[in-house]
Write a structure and sequence with these properties.
Blueprint lengths: L7 E5 L4 H12 L3 E6 L2 H13 L4 E5 L5 H15 L4 E4 L14 H11 L1 H20 L5 E6 L12 H24 L3 E6 L27 H15 L5 H13 L4 E2 L6 H5 L5
Parallel strand pairs: 1-2, 1-4, 2-3, 4-5, 5-6, 6-7
Length: about 270
């Protein structure tokens, strides 16, 4: 896909960070936008900025861990714009701590957003994309799933996050092959950035009360959070720069999108001895 003007992009996690950067980059390229997040004030701010770029937008509060809410997102997208061309399964959260200290609520929250959010997005939108491809030989669609370098490497004290992002890489690779088996007009990419200056270090602000076990901090979590925030503050690549790299990857029909390619050297080390 090399042309974006007047096409439609759905972005989850659009209220801040990388999701907002992807949405605004899409807006500047002339796309129409469906923006989803649980952070309604942040979502409204993204919508305002996107509309200032001339984009037509639809926003929806959506918890991507809930399949019915993602189904509603798909239905409203189709009702408003007819078709979707780019689906960015981007919503993500994280929490630190040693594996044996992470609670069941920690696992349910992180896997619910990071993994089930992608699963729900694929299940809600891909059948529609395949229908549109069958109906129209000019249709092009792509699913872009946000993983992380943590989907390739495993840092300590980030167990649920690492597990979720490895699963997203596996899911995306399988999706790519499954789509290739069915059509040449719908494809998939997986985005694997290293540390980028976003708000994910404070994602606990959006943690639902039902999955809050009351253990806001403990020594290994506090240490992991401190290190994560320091790494995010020291990030050498901004969210808008990553977003531009994402669209370049789409133009070049890349499956793996590694914005910081120098980190692939570190990733290759896992296969040695």
């Amino acid at each position: 896909m090399k042309h974006f003007k007047e096409r439609v992009a759905v972005v989850t996690g659009a209220a801040s960070g990388l999701g907002r950067a992807i949405a605004l980059t899409a807006a500047r390229k002339g796309m129409r936008l469906v923006l989803a997040d649980v952070d309604e004030p942040g979502l409204a701010a993204t919508r305002e900025q996107a509309e200032a770029c001339g984009a037509e937008t639809l926003t929806l509060r959506c918890d991507v861990s809930d399949a019915e809410q993602v189904k509603t997102l798909a239905d409203l997208s189709v009702n408003r714009f007819g078709r979707v061309h780019l689906l960015f399964n981007n919503a993500g959260v994280g929490c630190g701590g040693f594996l044996w200290e992470n609670s069941e609520a920690d696992w349910k929250w992180v896997l619910g957003v990071n993994l089930w959010g992608v699963i729900n997005g694929v299940r809600a939108f891909v059948p529609l994309m395949l229908e549109w491809a069958e109906q129209d030989e000019k249709y092009e669609g792509r699913v872009i799933n946000t993983s992380s370098l943590a989907g390739i490497l495993n840092a300590p004290a980030l167990g649920p996050y690492n597990v979720s992002k490895h699963a997203v890489v596996s899911l995306s690779e399988t999706l790519y092959h499954d789509l290739t088996y069915n059509t040449d007009r719908v494809s998939a990419s997986v985005l694997c950035p290293f540390y980028v200056a976003t708000g994910i270090g404070d994602s606990g602000r959006n943690r639902p009360p039902a999955l809050d076990d009351g253990r806001a901090t403990f020594p290994s979590r506090a240490a992991a959070d401190t290190l994560t925030r320091a790494a995010l503050d020291a990030a050498t690549m901004s969210a808008p720069e990553v977003a531009e790299e994402v669209f370049q990857g789409i133009c070049e029909d890349r499956f793996y999108i590694f914005p910081q390619e120098e980190m692939l050297v570190a990733a290759s080390g896992r296969f040695k001895n």
